[in-house]
Amino acid sequence: MIPVNETESNAQTPSPKCPLVESAGEFIPIEQTSFYAQPITSVAKEAEVFLKQCYLEQGLAELFPPRWQFVKDSIERTGTYEPTYDELAYGAKLAWRNSNRCVGRYFWHCLQLLDQRHL
Could you give the CA distance from residue 111 to residue 119 in angstroms, rounded to a whole number? Predict the structure, then answer.
């Protein structure tokens, strides 16, 4: 038998860098085989990430700061906030656009939202 060099057997191979996922403005590493990213545990952080994406993607970046201040105040007072119709419609379209198992998702931009929150 050929003896194994102890330094070779104890040497650790460097682990590959994990991909990063952006969560509430910070980057969190996730495992290569993971299909589940850590949830955002704060309503305020989740709202901020969503609203930033909503307003930036629609080219309305100048409307984000006052809206975020209003939402942040509402969350501090009540623990929640009420999305506007446009935010709700954007969220519904975003969810459909990101559902990779849906064959009809290519028509996400045609989605018409019927807001029934008043009932």
Answer: 21
